[in-house]
Amino acid sequence: MTPAAAGRKRSVTYIFPVYNEAENIDLLHRTVSQVVEPLLDRYRVDFIYVDDGSTDDSTARLQALADADDRVTVVELARNFGHQLAVTAGLDLADADAVIVMDSDLQDPPRVSVELIDKWRQGYEVVYAQRRSRRDTTFKRTTASAFYWVLRKAASIDIPRDTGDFRLLDRKVVDELRKFRERDRFLRGLVSYIGFRQVGVPFDRDERHAGVTGYPLRKMLRFAADGVLGFSVAPLKLISRLGYAISFLSLLGIVYAVGVKVLAPETTVPGWAFITISMFFLGGIQITMQGVLGSYIGRTYAQAQGRPLYTVAAVRTAARAPGGPGDSTDPASRSLAG
After folding, report:
1. What kind of architecture, by CATH, is found in domain 9-232+308-333?
2. pTM value > 0.90
3. Alpha helix locations (H) across the chain?
């Protein structure tokens, strides 16, 4: 801690991305408030809830929280931009000494956040919660395990296994993270890329309290693609290696065909089956290669457009007199760059 900061409480901001979590919001805030109660003599704690275009009653419940607790700020995105961009919006707004990112479905136990803060006090700039066990379906556990295996083999950086976005980030890490404005975001990869002193805290992940997951299979596959394509050129290298392998097999086929024609011409059987199969096989390989190239080109195109990562409909705090300073419904009352 710097001498200038020695006379004040250090601040911690909790960031919760919210998408159709109306049944979880009240219990989540009540639980987190109880968890941080013993910390209030040492830290100033506040909460940022980012409503990622919810279509249920989440917005109204979040506004009720903001009216009841002046530590709550609600960021309403103009539509659903996705979990990673919702977290980014919270990070862009937070101005605390440290931020803690948590999911709002109560699978990330709020009590673990205290352990993250303890590690931060010891001097670590990034403290990530690492799942020791998880109460998910067999399909979810299997696909998650496969994803981390592929990511570990393909990625050019070391991303800790069995970690999500549940983590504490020091102010200096948040400032560095704000410089990265890529659209197809994989935040845990970006945090690993940035560096600083990082440590894990093992925990047992709970079951979702209510509602349904915001990550169906389609979004999971896209998220996995963001992780691999954003931090690895392995698919591009695979194209070259596959091309070399096919060329080698073709060479063996030529040698075999010539050998049979010269040494045992009576055994040759004319026909088009082999040629047809080879054409379809090579055609499929070529289309797959074009698809991989297209994925990278598409990401480059989207990034070159330079569009804002998200748009904000409103930033809400506790209700105030309409038109007064800091009117709670005024999107410009807090600075937030997309």
Report:
1. Alpha-Beta Complex (3.90)
2. no
3. 22-36, 58-68, 83-93, 112-121, 138-154, 171-177, 187-194, 217-230, 234-263, 273-304
Contact partners, residue 50, CB within 8 Å, separation at least 6: 15, 16, 17, 18, 74, 75, 77, 86, 87, 89, 90
pLDDT of residue 170: 93
Residue with tokens 């979990």: 83
C-alpha–C-alpha distance, residues 143 and 118, integer Å: 32
Q: What is the pLDDT of residue 325?
A: 40
CA 25/CA 85 separation, integer angstroms: 20
Q: Which residues of the chain have pLDDT under 50?
A: 1-5, 209-211, 272-273, 320-335
Dihedral, 286, 292, 298, 304 alpha carbons, nearest 10: -110
Residue 337: per-residue pLDDT: 54
Give the whole-angstrom CA distance, residue 205 versus residue 15.
18
Determine the Cα–Cα distance for residues 190 and 125; give it in Å rounded to an integer: 14
DSSP H helix total and E strand total for the chain: 10, 8
- Enter the DSSP assignment of 78: S
- What count of Cα atoms within 13 Å lies in the side-chain half-sphere of residue 65? 28
pLDDT of residue 243: 65
List beta partners, residue 72: 47
Instruction: Give every strand in the sheet of 198-205, ordered side by side.
Output: 198-205, 126-134, 163-170, 98-101, 10-18, 43-51, 72-77, 312-316
SS3 54: coil
Going from N- to C-terminal start, the domains of the chain cover: 9-232+308-333, 234-304
Give the residue from 118, 143, 140 showing the smallest Cα distance to 129: 118
The pLDDT assigned to 125 comes to 92
Which pLDDT does position 132 carry in this prediction? Answer: 76
Q: 12: which strand partners?
A: 45, 98
